[in-house]
C-alpha cells in the first residue's frame, strides 16, 4: 500500500489545531480514494477543538477532524466494480464491522467495533476527513446527483442523523411537533418533520439567527426562549399539545421544561447530547410519555443523498459560510458564533 502525503486539519490538544501533512493512501482491494472538496464542522469537532473531547472520549494522539465530507473519486483499488474515478460522492463516515451481534441483528449503527471517521472513541483514533485526500471502503462512497453541490452532499451525514431520529419518532404525518434547540441538527429535524407531513412544527432556541433558518426551512412558529421564557405555557392546557418532541439541545431545562406541553402518550426523542440530566419521572409516568434515544444512522445515509437529489429536502439555507481549510481557525471561530452561523464548511481546493 503506497503512502504519500496531502494536507489536513489536525487537532493535537484543546485549541491546538494545525494544517499539516497527513498520509494519502493508495487504495487497496475494495477501496477508493476521494479528493475531498467540502467538509462541515460538526458539534463534535467543536468539542474536540474546545475541550479535547466530550464525556469520557478524549484525544490521546493527533487526529484529523471531520466526518461531514464529500468529494470526487480519483482512484479505485482492485476489485472495485461499483464506482469509477470521476464519480461525485458523499462519504458515509460509518464503517460497521458486519460481524458483531448488533450488525447481525440489523442494528449496524450500534456496532461494537464501529470505525467512525474523525472519532477518538477508539485508539488508535479513527482519523477524520478534513484533508485533501481520503481512502475509504468503496461502499462508503455514495454517488450524488449532478444537481447536488459538494456543499449539499457534505450535509448527508447530519441529515441522516435526523432521518434516523424521525424513524425513532414514528409516523409524523399530521402530527404536532416541537423541536427544542436549533443548531444544525435541530433545524434539519424541522426539515425532516416538514418532509414527513407534520401539521405543525414549533421550534425553540435562545438565538434569533438559527430560528430564522428554522422558519425558512419549514417551522410554523419559532420561539426565542430568552425573550419569551413562558412561551410554551400556552401549549400545556388539557394535558399538553404536542405529539412529538425532538430535543436537540442536550440541555436539561429544554427537556424537562417542555414535557408539560407534550400530550399524554406523546413521544420524546432525545437527539442532542449533553451531560446526564434529572428527569421528572412522576410526570413521565402519569402522562405515559415515551422517551426514546436516537444514535447515528445506517440505511438513512443513502436516503439522505436520495432526498437531496430529488429536491425533496433542501439543506442550502443551513449553509452559512464556506472557508478554505487553510483558514481552519477562522472557520472554527465562525462555527461557534450562533448569531451568524448554522453550518460552516471547509473547502479543500
From TrEMBL:
Pfam families xrefs: ADH_N, ADH_zinc_N
The entry's keywords: Metal-binding, NAD, Oxidoreductase, Plasmid, Zinc
UniProt xrefs under InterPro entries: ADH-like_C, ADH-like_N, ADH_Zn_CS, ER, GroES-like_sf, NAD(P)-bd_dom_sf
GO MF term list: oxidoreductase activity, acting on the CH-OH group of donors, NAD or NADP as acceptor; zinc ion binding
PROSITE patterns attached to this UniProt entry: ADH_ZINC
Domain of life: Bacteria
SMART domains per record: PKS_ER (SM00829)
Keyword Zinc found: yes
Family the entry assigns: Belongs to the zinc-containing alcohol dehydrogenase family.
Species of the source: Microvirga ossetica
Protein name: L-idonate 5-dehydrogenase
Domain Enoyl reductase (ER): 12-346
Cofactor requirements of the protein: Zn(2+)
Amino acid at each position: 500500500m503506497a503512502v504519500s502525503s496531502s494536507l489536513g486539519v489536525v487537532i493535537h490538544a484543546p485549541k491546538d489545531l494545525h494544517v499539516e501533512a497527513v498520509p494519502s493512501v493508495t487504495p487497496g482491494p475494495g477501496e477508493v480514494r476521494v479528493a475531498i472538496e467540502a467538509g462541515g464542522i460538526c458539534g463534535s469537532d467543536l468539542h474536540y477543538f474546545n475541550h479535547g473531547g466530550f464525556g469520557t472520549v478524549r484525544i490521546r494522539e493527533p487526529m484529523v477532524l471531520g466526518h461531514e465530507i464529500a468529494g470526487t473519486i480519483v482512484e479505485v483499488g482492485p476489485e472495485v466494480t461499483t464506482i469509477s474515478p470521476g464519480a461525485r460522492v458523499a462519504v458515509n463516515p460509518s464503517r460497521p464491522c458486519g460481524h458483531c451481534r448488533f450488525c447481525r441483528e440489523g442494528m449496524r449503527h450500534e456496532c461494537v467495533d464501529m470505525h467512525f471517521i474523525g472519532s477518538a472513541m477508539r485508539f488508535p483514533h479513527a482519523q477524520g476527513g478534513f484533508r485533501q485526500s481520503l481512502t475509504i471502503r468503496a461502499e462508503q462512497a455514495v454517488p450524488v446527483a449532478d444537481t447536488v453541490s459538494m456543499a449539499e452532499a457534505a450535509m448527508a451525514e447530519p441529515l441522516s442523523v435526523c432521518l434516523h431520529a424521525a424513524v425513532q419518532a414514528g409516523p409524523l404525518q399530521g402530527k404536532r411537533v416541537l423541536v427544542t434547540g436549533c443548531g444544525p441538527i435541530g433545524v434539519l429535524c424541522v426539515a425532516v418533520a416538514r418532509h414527513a407531513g407534520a401539521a405543525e412544527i414549533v421550534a425553540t432556541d435562545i438565538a434569533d439567527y438559527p430560528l430564522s433558518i428554522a422558519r425558512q426551512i419549514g417551522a410554523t412558529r419559532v420561539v426565542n426562549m430568552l425573550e419569551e421564557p413562558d412561551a410554551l405555557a400556552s401549549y400545556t392546557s388539557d394535558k399538553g399539545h404536542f405529539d412529538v418532541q425532538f430535543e436537540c439541545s442536550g440541555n436539561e431545562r429544554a427537556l424537562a421544561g417542555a414535557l408539560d406541553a407534550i400530550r399524554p402518550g406523546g413521544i420524546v426523542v432525545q437527539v442532542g447530547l449533553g451531560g446526564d440530566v434529572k428527569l421528572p419521572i412522576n410526570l413521565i409516568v402519569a402522562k405515559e410519555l415515551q422517551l426514546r434515544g436516537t444514535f447515528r444512522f445506517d440505511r438513512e445515509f443513502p436516503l439522505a443523498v436520495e432526498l437531496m437529489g430529488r429536491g425533496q429536502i433542501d439543506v442550502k439555507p443551513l449553509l452559512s459560510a464556506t472557508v478554505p481549510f487553510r483558514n481552519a481557525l477562522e472557520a472554527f471561530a465562525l462555527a461557534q458564533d450562533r448569531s451568524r452561523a448554522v453550518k460552516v464548511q471547509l473547502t479543500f481546493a
